[in-house]
Amino acid sequence: MDKPRITIFDTTLRDGEQSPGCSMNVQEKLHLAQQLDRLGVDVIEAGFPIASDGDFEAVQRISATVRRPIIAGLARACTGDVDRAWQALQGAAHPRIHVFLATSDIHLKYKLRITREQCLEQARNAVRHAKSLCADVEFSPEDATRTDVPFLCQVVEAVIAAGATTVNIPDTVGYSMPEEYGQLIRTLCEKVAGIDKVTISTHCHNDLGLAVANSLAGVQQGARQVECTINGIGERAGNASLEEIVMAMRVRPDRYRYETAVASEHLYASSQMLAEITRVPVQPNKAIIGRNAFAHEAGIHQDGMLKNPLTYEIMTPQSVGVPDSRLVLGKHSGRHALALRCEQLGHQFERRELDEIYRRFVVLADRIKKVQDSHLLELIQDVSRGAVSPNDVTGQSKKFPPATAPLPFPRAASASAGINANDSHPAQISTNAGQAQARPGVPAPANWFGGAPVTHADHHTEQEDYLWGV
Ligand code: KIV
Ligand code: ZN
């Protein structure tokens, strides 16, 4: 059975650009629009032409250059805005005028200072005017989720009768909960005459972190267009993130039997391009395209990943265009991952050599958050030259940056070993004789679990790789 097709409406260049620090010039917008085209989005909202000459020109240039997707221009519900949007869209192969007007009582009373009747009339007239210019007209009742539901149904019915082809339901202030938003879409489907002739769209903001969940709930209740942005940028806390929506449907077809035309292997490049243009970095733990989204540091995870990536990855990095899954070497890493990285750097070691490298690596990793390849290469050189680790002598490495914060010795261990809690990590031990020793003048510490001192032999067990990851 065919899966219903979801239209991906990208508003990175309009709503996304409205977020602080994310403004782009015409050339940058054009560049990004071409990338969105490669990505396979169905609609590009290129700007708000009445807002500025720059926005007008961006919509005009994108319309003339990017020919496959629909190009939308935003307009308030008034003749001047609609005309200006239409003017900017003249060269588009597939133009869309997107008209919006707030419908909630809060907005009518405090912002627009109009009555519900005036709102209804204005919406109807603006859509009628837009339709006289362009076959493809979208209408958005701004702040729909805080609008009285019977009034919302009335407005939606009126704009459909006036010629709207898409009706978008914005959760403008990110106030809705998933079941609530889904229910609203369902109510519109059940109560509005003519709703079956138009596409219902979601447009969810992320003020409570629910933009993606709300959008998916809307789709499950009948919405067939999702408005979203790359990296989830947008007003305040942002819009629903395009990459999360697309990958949720791709990774969980058992729950979301829908398809999009997005070529997911271009997601990472699109995200990087946006970050580069706006100079707004992507948060490291951002789902799908964040720097850490496919990074595995904990030993238990690294071990699982090396045995079978299915253990800790629900999608491949390649499927979203991330060049390679990176194993981050840090203090929680195990010997297995270290050996692999050494091999990738062209060094293969026997078990005993690797033990020595591993021991020094743990000392180093305890001092610096992330062990880079250059650090590791230096460490390998030291070990192959038979050099004594600087830490063994002075407790302070000269080569590596200082620790950001000393790791306190585990309480149980320090108690049993009778040493100060601020003393070093148990692995910070000189092992010249293959036997654990403390720094000069300090008794040998117990291991992390308060047991016997750490010995060379302890480092051999597979079990230890597992425990380091806990
Ligand atoms: O959030 C919103 O309500 C909007 C509309 C203009 C669609 O961005
Ligand atoms: Zn918005």
Radius of gyration: 29 Å
Q: How would a textbook summarize the main sheet?
A: 8 strands, parallel, barrel
| Helix/strand class | alpha/beta
The fraction of residues assigned to DSSP E strands is 5-15%
The overall pLDDT average reads 83
Anisotropy-based shape: elongated
Bound molecules: 3-methyl-2-oxobutanoic acid, zinc ion
Q: What count of helical segments does DSSP give?
A: 17
* Biggest sheet strand line-up: 1-2-3-4-5-6-7-8
DSSP E strands, number: 8
Describe this structure in words.
By secondary structure, the chain is of the alpha/beta class. 40% of the residues lie in helices and 10% in strands. It has helices spanning 26-39, 53-65, 79-88, 105-112, 116-133, 149-161, 178-191, 211-220, 242-251, 267-278, 299-307, 335-344, 351-367, 373-385, 390-394, 411-417, 462-468; strands at 7-10, 43-47, 70-76, 95-102, 137-142, 166-171, 199-204, 225-228. It has an eight-stranded parallel β-barrel, surrounded by seven helices. The longest helix has 18 residues, at 116-133. Residues 15, 170, 172, 203, 205, 235 line the site of zinc ion. Residues 15, 100, 140, 142, 168, 170, 172, 203, 205 line the site of 3-methyl-2-oxobutanoic acid.
Task: Give a short overview.
Helix content is about 40%, strand content about 10%. With about 475 residues, it is of the alpha/beta class.
Question: What attributes does this structure have?
Answer:
about 475 residues, alpha/beta, 8-stranded parallel beta barrel, about 10% strand, elongated, disordered C terminus, binds 3-methyl-2-oxobutanoic acid, binds zinc ion
